[in-house]
Amino acid sequence: MEMITAQVKNTVYFDGICNLCNSFIDFVITRDKRKIIFYASLQSASASALLHGHGITGKLNTIYFYSNHQFYNKSRAVGRILLLIGGGWKIAGVIILLTPRPLADAVYSFIARNRYRLFGMKSTCRIPGAAEAAQFLS
């Protein structure tokens, strides 16, 4: 349990069967040069336990980002993740975070509602490759 506790500092919880979500995780992994972000599919045991422990239950149909002892979801999660990976993506993160939340979340929710139809879905959750395995929580 000690290792998981240390790793959840900056953790993205995502829909493991969503093609768009998996593409976003690929995007983040390749840009997280410091390897400070960790990942867990919403369908995993670690995600279920941690989210439930923080009162997040029900249909888990959004991205969550846990950082600095806080959970962020929807547009705020994406903005915080982009800030953390840095580089030019920091600017995109700032723009998202400066956009009024109702507007940013409305755009996020529209895409989220249509993600399977627009981008498809996998039959099983993502299985990390050998190079990624250390950053994925089970």
Walk me through what this model shows.
This protein is α+β, with helices and mostly antiparallel strands and 138 residues long. 50% of the residues lie in helices and 12% in strands. It contains six helices and four strands; from the N terminus they run H-E-H-E-H-E-E-H-H-H. The protein has helices at residues 2-7, 19-31, 45-53, 74-85, 89-98, 101-119; strands at residues 11-14, 38-41, 64-67, 70-73. A four-stranded mixed β-sheet has the order 2-1-3-4, covered by helices on one side. Helix 4 (74-85) runs antiparallel to helix 5.
Properties at a glance:
single chain; 138 residues; alpha+beta; four-stranded mixed beta sheet; 6 helices; 4 strands; 50% helix; 12% strand; globular
Topology:
Layout: H1 2-7, E1 11-14, H2 19-31, E2 38-41, H3 45-53, E3 64-67, E4 70-73, H4 74-85, H5 89-98, H6 101-119
Parallel strand pairs: 1-2
Antiparallel strand pairs: 1-3, 3-4
- Percent of residues in helical segments? 40-55%
Q: Biggest sheet, in brief?
A: 4 strands, mixed
Distance between the termini: 12 Å
Mean pLDDT reading: 86
Question: Which spans have pLDDT < 50 for at least 5 consecutive residues?
Answer: 1-7
Q: How many helices? A: 6
* Strand residue percentage: 5-15%
Structural class determined from secondary elements: alpha+beta
Supply Rg.
14 Å
How are the strands of the largest sheet arranged? Answer: 2-1-3-4
Element-level helix/strand string: HEHEHEEHHH
Question: How many extended strands?
Answer: 4
